[in-house]
Write a structure and sequence with these properties.
Layout: E1 4-8, H1 13-29, E2 32-40, H2 50-77, E3 81-88, H3 90-101, E4 105-108, H4 123-131, E5 136-138
Parallel strand pairs: 1-2, 1-4, 2-3, 4-5
Helix pairs in contact: 3-4
């Protein structure tokens, strides 16, 4: 049913549950798993000043660590995992990447690190659900 599964992660608890679910779906269907981490350019401005550049680089490094963990978990299950770390607006980049790889399923966490209101769906998740034009599972 699924050949290509995309999971978005920001390393939050909700995103980690989404990763687990995406790995299960990829394993069950023999799908390739794509994992994406987006350095939010609204939150972490593109480098221009040295302190901003250092902060952005640190966030990108942390994102790559999260993606490496997904890849390692996938490898241990025999799942092909492709990772992408990029800069931009998370919801735009997630939907764009889903279109690029023609994802059969997009898996996202209910709310991410930047979400402050308990019980409400996160804004990135809400926008992905509204704009993906393909199946999205919210975990």
């Amino acid at each position: 049913m699924y050949d290509t599964v995309l999971v978005a992660t920001d390393g939050s608890g909700s995103a980690n549950r989404a990763v687990t679910h995406a790995l299960e779906q990829a394993e069950q269907h023999g799908a390739t798993l794509h994992a994406i981490y987006v350095v939010d350019t609204d939150r972490y401005a593109e480098p221009g000043l040295s302190s901003i550049e250092l902060e952005t680089a640190g966030v990108e490094d942390w994102g790559n660590e999260q993606l490496n963990e997904v890849a390692e978990r996938g490898d241990s299950l025999g799942i092909d995992v492709v990772t992408r770390c990029c800069h931009g607006k998370p919801n735009v980049e997630i939907v764009s990447y889903a279109d690029e790889i023609d994802a059969d399923l997009v898996v996202v966490g209910y709310q991410g690190h930047s979400h402050t209101k308990t019980g409400l769906i996160g804004s990135v998740t809400d926008r992905v659900v509204q704009n993906a034009g393909r199946p999205v599972q919210v975990v």
